[in-house]
Amino acid sequence: MTFWPAPHVRTPVHASVTLPGSKSITNRALILAALADGPSTLTGALRSRDTNLMIDALRAMGTDIDGDGDTLAVTPPKEFTSAVVDCGLAGTVMRFLPSVAALATGDVAFDGDEQARIRPLDTILDALRGLGVDIDGNALPFVVHGMGGLRGGPVTIDASGSSQFVSGLLLSAARFEQGITVNHDGAPLPSMPHIEMTVQMLREADVRVDAPADPRKAQTWTVSPGPIRAVDWEIEPDLSNATPFLAAAAITGGEVSIPHWPRYTTQPGDVIREILVRMGAECRIFDGILTVHGPDRLAGIDIDLHDVGELTPTVAALAALADSPSRLRGIAHLRGHETDRLAALSTEINRLGGKVTETEDGLAITPAPLSGGQWHSYADHRMATAGAILGLAVPGIEIEDIGTTAKTLPNFAGLWEAMIDGQGH
Q1: 3-state secondary structure labels for all residues of 161-178
Q2: How far from the centroid of its chain's Cα atoms is residue 139's Cα?
Q3: Which domains are delineated in the chain?
Q4: Given 126, 128, 276, 320, which residue has the most CB atoms within 10 angstroms?
Q5: The whole model's pTM is what?
Q6: Is 310 in the active site?
Q7: Choice among 310, 338, 348, 400 that is catalytic
Q8: Run of H or E including 182
Protein backbone atom coordinates (compact mmCIF):
# COMPACT_ATOMS: atom_id res chain seq x y z
CA MET A 1 0.00 0.00 0.00
CA THR A 2 1.37 3.40 -0.95
CA PHE A 3 1.38 6.43 1.34
CA TRP A 4 1.29 10.03 0.13
CA PRO A 5 3.18 12.62 2.20
CA ALA A 6 0.50 15.22 2.89
CA PRO A 7 1.84 18.71 2.10
CA HIS A 8 2.44 20.85 5.19
CA VAL A 9 2.48 24.66 5.15
CA ARG A 10 3.75 27.28 7.59
CA THR A 11 2.20 30.26 5.80
CA PRO A 12 -1.40 31.06 4.81
CA VAL A 13 -2.69 29.43 1.63
CA HIS A 14 -3.77 31.84 -1.13
CA ALA A 15 -5.26 30.31 -4.27
CA SER A 16 -8.15 30.05 -6.71
CA VAL A 17 -9.26 26.48 -7.43
CA THR A 18 -11.56 25.56 -10.33
CA LEU A 19 -13.33 22.26 -9.74
CA PRO A 20 -15.03 19.81 -12.10
CA GLY A 21 -18.75 19.01 -12.07
CA SER A 22 -20.92 17.50 -9.37
CA LYS A 23 -20.94 13.72 -9.13
CA SER A 24 -24.47 13.71 -7.73
CA ILE A 25 -25.86 15.85 -10.54
CA THR A 26 -23.84 14.08 -13.25
CA ASN A 27 -25.06 10.60 -12.32
CA ARG A 28 -28.67 11.70 -11.99
CA ALA A 29 -28.47 13.49 -15.36
CA LEU A 30 -26.98 10.38 -16.99
CA ILE A 31 -29.89 8.22 -15.80
CA LEU A 32 -32.54 10.75 -16.82
CA ALA A 33 -30.88 11.12 -20.23
CA ALA A 34 -30.85 7.33 -20.70
CA LEU A 35 -34.57 7.18 -19.84
CA ALA A 36 -35.56 10.25 -21.88
CA ASP A 37 -37.69 10.50 -25.01
CA GLY A 38 -34.78 11.68 -27.17
CA PRO A 39 -31.06 12.55 -27.22
CA SER A 40 -29.52 14.78 -24.55
CA THR A 41 -26.20 16.53 -23.99
CA LEU A 42 -24.42 16.88 -20.67
CA THR A 43 -22.00 19.82 -20.39
CA GLY A 44 -19.54 20.09 -17.53
CA ALA A 45 -20.03 16.44 -16.55
CA LEU A 46 -17.68 15.06 -13.94
CA ARG A 47 -15.36 12.31 -15.15
CA SER A 48 -14.37 10.30 -12.10
CA ARG A 49 -14.47 6.68 -11.06
CA ASP A 50 -18.10 6.90 -9.89
CA THR A 51 -19.36 8.65 -13.02
CA ASN A 52 -17.34 6.43 -15.34
CA LEU A 53 -18.89 3.38 -13.63
CA MET A 54 -22.34 4.87 -14.29
CA ILE A 55 -21.45 5.55 -17.93
CA ASP A 56 -20.08 2.02 -18.39
CA ALA A 57 -23.18 0.49 -16.79
CA LEU A 58 -25.64 2.45 -18.94
CA ARG A 59 -23.61 1.64 -22.05
CA ALA A 60 -23.64 -2.06 -21.12
CA MET A 61 -27.45 -1.86 -20.88
CA GLY A 62 -27.70 -0.40 -24.39
CA THR A 63 -27.41 3.39 -23.98
CA ASP A 64 -25.25 5.24 -26.53
CA ILE A 65 -22.99 7.68 -24.63
CA ASP A 66 -20.49 9.53 -26.81
CA GLY A 67 -17.65 11.67 -25.49
CA ASP A 68 -14.42 11.21 -23.57
CA GLY A 69 -14.34 14.59 -21.80
CA ASP A 70 -16.87 16.60 -19.82
CA THR A 71 -19.31 16.95 -22.73
CA LEU A 72 -21.39 13.81 -23.28
CA ALA A 73 -24.02 13.06 -25.92
CA VAL A 74 -26.55 10.51 -24.65
CA THR A 75 -28.97 8.62 -26.89
CA PRO A 76 -31.46 6.37 -25.05
CA PRO A 77 -31.79 2.76 -26.18
CA LYS A 78 -34.96 1.43 -27.73
CA GLU A 79 -34.88 -1.04 -24.88
CA PHE A 80 -32.45 -1.80 -22.05
CA THR A 81 -30.67 -5.12 -22.42
CA SER A 82 -28.98 -7.78 -20.31
CA ALA A 83 -25.72 -6.58 -18.81
CA VAL A 84 -23.10 -6.98 -16.12
CA VAL A 85 -22.74 -3.87 -13.96
CA ASP A 86 -19.63 -3.03 -11.93
CA CYS A 87 -20.71 -0.73 -9.07
CA GLY A 88 -17.23 -0.22 -7.63
CA LEU A 89 -17.96 1.64 -4.40
CA ALA A 90 -20.51 3.98 -6.01
CA GLY A 91 -23.73 4.18 -3.99
CA THR A 92 -25.42 6.00 -6.88
CA VAL A 93 -24.73 3.04 -9.18
CA MET A 94 -25.74 0.26 -6.81
CA ARG A 95 -28.87 2.10 -5.57
CA PHE A 96 -30.05 4.03 -8.64
CA LEU A 97 -29.61 1.44 -11.40
CA PRO A 98 -31.63 -1.54 -10.08
CA SER A 99 -34.83 0.36 -10.98
CA VAL A 100 -33.49 0.94 -14.50
CA ALA A 101 -32.50 -2.72 -14.71
CA ALA A 102 -36.10 -3.68 -13.92
CA LEU A 103 -37.04 -2.11 -17.28
CA ALA A 104 -34.50 -4.25 -19.18
CA THR A 105 -35.40 -7.25 -21.30
CA GLY A 106 -33.17 -9.76 -19.57
CA ASP A 107 -30.94 -10.24 -16.56
CA VAL A 108 -28.74 -7.45 -15.20
CA ALA A 109 -26.05 -8.70 -12.80
CA PHE A 110 -24.57 -6.26 -10.25
CA ASP A 111 -21.31 -6.57 -8.32
CA GLY A 112 -18.67 -4.22 -6.99
CA ASP A 113 -15.58 -3.78 -4.85
CA GLU A 114 -15.15 -6.06 -1.85
CA GLN A 115 -15.90 -3.18 0.53
CA ALA A 116 -19.18 -2.53 -1.31
CA ARG A 117 -20.52 -6.00 -0.52
CA ILE A 118 -21.32 -4.97 3.05
CA ARG A 119 -23.23 -1.82 2.06
CA PRO A 120 -26.96 -2.11 2.80
CA LEU A 121 -29.10 -2.59 -0.31
CA ASP A 122 -32.06 -4.62 0.94
CA THR A 123 -34.23 -1.48 1.21
CA ILE A 124 -34.15 -0.74 -2.52
CA LEU A 125 -34.19 -4.41 -3.58
CA ASP A 126 -37.13 -5.30 -1.33
CA ALA A 127 -39.01 -2.22 -2.55
CA LEU A 128 -38.59 -3.34 -6.16
CA ARG A 129 -39.70 -6.86 -5.22
CA GLY A 130 -42.83 -5.31 -3.74
CA LEU A 131 -43.44 -3.64 -7.11
CA GLY A 132 -43.20 -6.96 -8.94
CA VAL A 133 -39.50 -7.34 -9.79
CA ASP A 134 -37.74 -10.71 -9.51
CA ILE A 135 -34.32 -10.21 -7.87
CA ASP A 136 -31.75 -12.75 -6.64
CA GLY A 137 -29.78 -11.57 -3.61
CA ASN A 138 -30.05 -8.90 -0.92
CA ALA A 139 -26.64 -7.25 -1.31
CA LEU A 140 -23.85 -7.24 -3.86
CA PRO A 141 -23.64 -9.41 -5.87
CA PHE A 142 -27.30 -9.55 -6.97
CA VAL A 143 -29.23 -10.10 -10.22
CA VAL A 144 -32.27 -8.17 -11.44
CA HIS A 145 -34.42 -10.24 -13.82
CA GLY A 146 -35.76 -7.51 -16.08
CA MET A 147 -39.11 -8.07 -17.79
CA GLY A 148 -39.05 -5.05 -20.10
CA GLY A 149 -41.34 -3.03 -17.84
CA LEU A 150 -42.54 -2.53 -14.30
CA ARG A 151 -46.00 -2.16 -12.82
CA GLY A 152 -45.05 0.39 -10.17
CA GLY A 153 -47.56 1.75 -7.67
CA PRO A 154 -47.32 2.41 -3.92
CA VAL A 155 -44.43 1.22 -1.77
CA THR A 156 -43.43 1.87 1.83
CA ILE A 157 -39.76 1.77 2.82
CA ASP A 158 -37.49 2.71 5.69
CA ALA A 159 -34.88 4.89 3.98
CA SER A 160 -33.31 6.20 7.19
CA GLY A 161 -30.05 4.50 6.18
CA SER A 162 -29.66 6.55 2.99
CA SER A 163 -31.64 9.09 0.98
CA GLN A 164 -30.35 7.26 -2.11
CA PHE A 165 -33.06 4.63 -1.60
CA VAL A 166 -35.75 7.25 -2.26
CA SER A 167 -33.91 8.82 -5.20
CA GLY A 168 -33.25 5.38 -6.67
CA LEU A 169 -36.99 4.74 -6.90
CA LEU A 170 -38.03 8.22 -8.03
CA LEU A 171 -35.55 8.62 -10.91
CA SER A 172 -36.98 5.80 -13.05
CA ALA A 173 -40.57 5.89 -11.85
CA ALA A 174 -42.07 7.91 -14.71
CA ARG A 175 -41.31 4.88 -16.90
CA PHE A 176 -43.30 2.54 -14.63
CA GLU A 177 -46.84 1.74 -15.79
CA GLN A 178 -48.40 3.28 -12.68
CA GLY A 179 -45.55 5.58 -11.70
CA ILE A 180 -44.77 5.31 -8.00
CA THR A 181 -45.76 6.55 -4.57
CA VAL A 182 -42.89 6.21 -2.10
CA ASN A 183 -43.75 6.49 1.58
CA HIS A 184 -40.87 6.66 4.03
CA ASP A 185 -41.70 5.07 7.39
CA GLY A 186 -38.82 5.33 9.83
CA ALA A 187 -36.40 7.71 11.50
CA PRO A 188 -35.93 11.12 9.83
CA LEU A 189 -34.36 10.85 6.40
CA PRO A 190 -30.70 11.82 6.08
CA SER A 191 -29.35 14.05 3.30
CA MET A 192 -32.68 15.60 2.34
CA PRO A 193 -30.96 18.02 -0.10
CA HIS A 194 -30.12 15.05 -2.30
CA ILE A 195 -33.81 14.08 -2.56
CA GLU A 196 -34.63 17.71 -3.33
CA MET A 197 -31.99 17.55 -6.08
CA THR A 198 -33.67 14.46 -7.55
CA VAL A 199 -37.12 16.08 -7.45
CA GLN A 200 -35.86 19.30 -9.04
CA MET A 201 -34.12 17.45 -11.87
CA LEU A 202 -37.19 15.30 -12.56
CA ARG A 203 -39.30 18.44 -12.80
CA GLU A 204 -36.78 19.99 -15.19
CA ALA A 205 -37.42 16.93 -17.39
CA ASP A 206 -41.20 17.65 -17.25
CA VAL A 207 -41.90 14.75 -14.90
CA ARG A 208 -44.77 15.38 -12.50
CA VAL A 209 -43.59 14.92 -8.93
CA ASP A 210 -45.70 15.55 -5.84
CA ALA A 211 -43.30 16.14 -2.96
CA PRO A 212 -44.06 17.09 0.65
CA ALA A 213 -43.90 20.80 1.43
CA ASP A 214 -42.21 19.95 4.71
CA PRO A 215 -40.38 16.62 4.32
CA ARG A 216 -39.74 16.45 8.07
CA LYS A 217 -43.48 16.06 8.72
CA ALA A 218 -44.81 14.18 5.68
CA GLN A 219 -42.49 11.88 3.84
CA THR A 220 -44.36 10.70 0.76
CA TRP A 221 -43.34 11.32 -2.84
CA THR A 222 -45.44 10.52 -5.94
CA VAL A 223 -44.11 10.37 -9.51
CA SER A 224 -46.76 10.21 -12.24
CA PRO A 225 -46.18 7.94 -15.25
CA GLY A 226 -45.27 9.60 -18.52
CA PRO A 227 -42.39 10.56 -20.80
CA ILE A 228 -39.12 11.99 -19.49
CA ARG A 229 -38.23 14.99 -21.64
CA ALA A 230 -34.71 15.10 -23.09
CA VAL A 231 -32.80 17.93 -21.40
CA ASP A 232 -29.42 19.44 -22.22
CA TRP A 233 -27.94 19.41 -18.73
CA GLU A 234 -25.34 21.94 -17.55
CA ILE A 235 -23.61 20.44 -14.53
CA GLU A 236 -22.67 22.63 -11.55
CA PRO A 237 -19.22 22.25 -9.95
CA ASP A 238 -19.15 19.74 -7.08
CA LEU A 239 -19.55 21.80 -3.93
CA SER A 240 -18.74 18.92 -1.56
CA ASN A 241 -15.44 18.44 -3.36
CA ALA A 242 -14.79 22.14 -2.79
CA THR A 243 -14.95 21.81 0.99
CA PRO A 244 -11.36 20.58 1.62
CA PHE A 245 -9.98 23.52 -0.39
CA LEU A 246 -12.11 26.02 1.52
CA ALA A 247 -11.06 24.32 4.77
CA ALA A 248 -7.44 24.99 3.76
CA ALA A 249 -8.14 28.72 3.94
CA ALA A 250 -9.88 28.33 7.30
CA ILE A 251 -7.10 26.45 9.06
CA THR A 252 -4.16 28.45 7.65
CA GLY A 253 -5.69 31.92 7.94
CA GLY A 254 -5.42 32.17 4.17
CA GLU A 255 -7.79 32.86 1.30
CA VAL A 256 -9.19 30.40 -1.22
CA SER A 257 -11.62 31.21 -4.03
CA ILE A 258 -13.85 28.81 -5.97
CA PRO A 259 -15.28 30.18 -9.24
CA HIS A 260 -18.68 29.25 -10.73
CA TRP A 261 -20.31 28.86 -7.30
CA PRO A 262 -24.07 28.62 -7.98
CA ARG A 263 -26.32 31.23 -6.40
CA TYR A 264 -29.14 28.71 -5.95
CA THR A 265 -28.43 25.00 -5.57
CA THR A 266 -29.72 21.80 -4.00
CA GLN A 267 -26.18 20.55 -3.38
CA PRO A 268 -25.51 19.85 0.32
CA GLY A 269 -21.97 21.18 -0.08
CA ASP A 270 -23.31 24.73 -0.12
CA VAL A 271 -23.81 24.46 3.66
CA ILE A 272 -20.02 24.64 4.12
CA ARG A 273 -20.39 28.42 3.91
CA GLU A 274 -22.54 28.54 7.05
CA ILE A 275 -20.26 26.08 8.85
CA LEU A 276 -17.09 28.04 8.13
CA VAL A 277 -18.68 31.32 9.23
CA ARG A 278 -19.81 29.71 12.50
CA MET A 279 -16.21 28.55 13.05
CA GLY A 280 -14.89 32.07 12.55
CA ALA A 281 -14.09 32.36 8.84
CA GLU A 282 -15.36 35.00 6.43
CA CYS A 283 -17.26 33.93 3.30
CA ARG A 284 -18.40 36.10 0.42
CA ILE A 285 -19.76 35.51 -3.07
CA PHE A 286 -19.12 38.11 -5.75
CA ASP A 287 -19.65 37.65 -9.47
CA GLY A 288 -20.08 33.90 -9.05
CA ILE A 289 -16.86 33.44 -7.08
CA LEU A 290 -16.94 32.16 -3.49
CA THR A 291 -14.01 33.37 -1.40
CA VAL A 292 -13.22 32.13 2.10
CA HIS A 293 -10.82 34.03 4.36
CA GLY A 294 -9.60 32.12 7.39
CA PRO A 295 -9.62 33.43 10.98
CA ASP A 296 -6.68 33.84 13.34
CA ARG A 297 -8.17 31.10 15.53
CA LEU A 298 -10.72 28.48 14.51
CA ALA A 299 -13.68 28.03 16.86
CA GLY A 300 -15.29 24.71 17.68
CA ILE A 301 -18.87 24.03 16.58
CA ASP A 302 -21.95 22.18 17.84
CA ILE A 303 -23.93 21.26 14.75
CA ASP A 304 -26.49 18.80 13.42
CA LEU A 305 -25.11 17.45 10.12
CA HIS A 306 -28.00 15.05 9.47
CA ASP A 307 -28.92 16.61 6.14
CA VAL A 308 -25.32 17.18 5.01
CA GLY A 309 -23.54 14.12 6.38
CA GLU A 310 -21.05 13.99 3.51
CA LEU A 311 -19.43 17.14 4.95
CA THR A 312 -18.60 15.33 8.21
CA PRO A 313 -14.98 14.34 7.38
CA THR A 314 -14.13 17.94 6.46
CA VAL A 315 -15.86 19.34 9.55
CA ALA A 316 -14.22 16.73 11.81
CA ALA A 317 -10.79 17.72 10.50
CA LEU A 318 -11.57 21.39 11.12
CA ALA A 319 -12.85 20.58 14.61
CA ALA A 320 -9.67 18.66 15.47
CA LEU A 321 -7.70 21.85 14.73
CA ALA A 322 -10.07 24.29 16.48
CA ASP A 323 -9.45 26.02 19.82
CA SER A 324 -12.57 24.68 21.57
CA PRO A 325 -14.58 21.43 21.64
CA SER A 326 -17.03 20.43 18.92
CA ARG A 327 -20.05 18.16 18.77
CA LEU A 328 -21.15 16.71 15.40
CA ARG A 329 -24.67 15.29 15.68
CA GLY A 330 -27.36 13.57 13.59
CA ILE A 331 -24.97 11.40 11.59
CA ALA A 332 -25.45 7.84 12.82
CA HIS A 333 -26.23 6.89 9.20
CA LEU A 334 -22.57 7.48 8.29
CA ARG A 335 -21.79 4.08 9.79
CA GLY A 336 -23.20 2.64 6.54
CA HIS A 337 -21.24 4.76 4.05
CA GLU A 338 -18.13 3.72 2.05
CA THR A 339 -16.75 2.78 5.44
CA ASP A 340 -18.03 3.37 8.96
CA ARG A 341 -17.00 7.01 8.80
CA LEU A 342 -17.59 7.69 12.49
CA ALA A 343 -15.31 4.85 13.58
CA ALA A 344 -12.77 5.72 10.89
CA LEU A 345 -12.58 9.42 11.82
CA SER A 346 -12.28 8.75 15.55
CA THR A 347 -9.64 6.05 15.00
CA GLU A 348 -7.48 8.09 12.65
CA ILE A 349 -7.63 11.41 14.50
CA ASN A 350 -6.91 9.63 17.79
CA ARG A 351 -3.99 7.83 16.15
CA LEU A 352 -2.42 11.27 15.63
CA GLY A 353 -2.98 12.23 19.27
CA GLY A 354 -6.49 13.64 19.04
CA LYS A 355 -9.38 13.25 21.46
CA VAL A 356 -12.43 12.01 19.56
CA THR A 357 -15.19 9.85 20.99
CA GLU A 358 -18.12 8.31 19.18
CA THR A 359 -21.56 9.20 20.45
CA GLU A 360 -24.82 7.46 19.61
CA ASP A 361 -25.40 9.76 16.65
CA GLY A 362 -22.07 11.42 15.94
CA LEU A 363 -18.69 12.57 17.27
CA ALA A 364 -17.45 14.60 20.23
CA ILE A 365 -14.12 16.24 19.40
CA THR A 366 -11.85 17.93 21.94
CA PRO A 367 -8.84 19.64 20.36
CA ALA A 368 -5.48 18.21 21.36
CA PRO A 369 -1.93 18.60 20.00
CA LEU A 370 -1.57 16.37 16.94
CA SER A 371 1.58 14.75 15.60
CA GLY A 372 2.48 13.14 12.30
CA GLY A 373 1.84 9.55 11.40
CA GLN A 374 0.00 7.31 8.99
CA TRP A 375 -3.59 8.18 8.08
CA HIS A 376 -5.66 5.29 6.74
CA SER A 377 -8.24 6.11 4.09
CA TYR A 378 -10.36 2.90 4.23
CA ALA A 379 -10.85 3.19 0.44
CA ASP A 380 -13.00 6.25 1.26
CA HIS A 381 -12.37 9.39 -0.77
CA ARG A 382 -13.59 11.77 1.93
CA MET A 383 -11.42 10.12 4.58
CA ALA A 384 -8.42 10.74 2.31
CA THR A 385 -9.23 14.43 1.86
CA ALA A 386 -9.79 14.84 5.62
CA GLY A 387 -6.24 13.60 6.14
CA ALA A 388 -4.96 16.13 3.61
CA ILE A 389 -6.67 18.95 5.53
CA LEU A 390 -4.96 17.89 8.76
CA GLY A 391 -1.64 17.56 6.96
CA LEU A 392 -1.64 21.27 6.14
CA ALA A 393 -1.39 22.06 9.86
CA VAL A 394 0.41 18.95 11.16
CA PRO A 395 3.78 17.94 9.68
CA GLY A 396 4.56 14.32 8.88
CA ILE A 397 1.11 12.94 8.02
CA GLU A 398 1.18 10.22 5.36
CA ILE A 399 -2.11 9.28 3.70
CA GLU A 400 -2.82 5.75 2.58
CA ASP A 401 -4.05 5.41 -1.01
CA ILE A 402 -4.63 9.07 -1.93
CA GLY A 403 -5.74 7.68 -5.32
CA THR A 404 -9.09 6.72 -3.78
CA THR A 405 -10.06 10.39 -4.22
CA ALA A 406 -10.52 9.61 -7.94
CA LYS A 407 -13.94 8.26 -6.92
CA THR A 408 -15.28 11.81 -7.18
CA LEU A 409 -12.32 14.12 -7.85
CA PRO A 410 -9.64 13.01 -10.31
CA ASN A 411 -6.17 14.50 -9.69
CA PHE A 412 -7.01 15.67 -6.17
CA ALA A 413 -3.34 15.48 -5.23
CA GLY A 414 -2.36 17.67 -8.18
CA LEU A 415 -5.07 20.24 -7.40
CA TRP A 416 -4.06 20.25 -3.72
CA GLU A 417 -0.39 20.79 -4.47
CA ALA A 418 -1.21 23.53 -7.01
CA MET A 419 -3.35 25.26 -4.39
CA ILE A 420 -0.45 25.27 -1.96
CA ASP A 421 1.82 26.69 -4.64
CA GLY A 422 -0.71 29.51 -5.03
CA GLN A 423 -1.63 28.55 -8.56
CA GLY A 424 -4.75 26.46 -8.06
CA HIS A 425 -6.54 26.09 -11.36
Answers
A1: CCCHHHHHHHCCHHHCCC
A2: 20
A3: 3-19+238-420 (3.65.10.10), 23-222 (3.65.10.10)
A4: 320
A5: 0.88
A6: yes
A7: 310
A8: strand 180-184
Helix (H, G, I), strand (E, B) or coil at 72: strand
Plot region of 240 (φ>0 → left; ψ -120 to 50 → alpha; else → beta): alpha
CB within 8 Å of 27: residues ≥ 6 apart: 50, 51, 54, 90, 92, 93, 96
180-184: strand order across its sheet: 153-157, 180-184, 220-223, 209-210
Within 10 Å of residue 392's Cβ, how many Cβ atoms? 25
- DSSP string covering 233-267: EEPPB-HHHHHHHHHHHHHHT-EEEEES--SS---
Phi, psi for residue 83 in degrees, rounded to 5: -165, 165
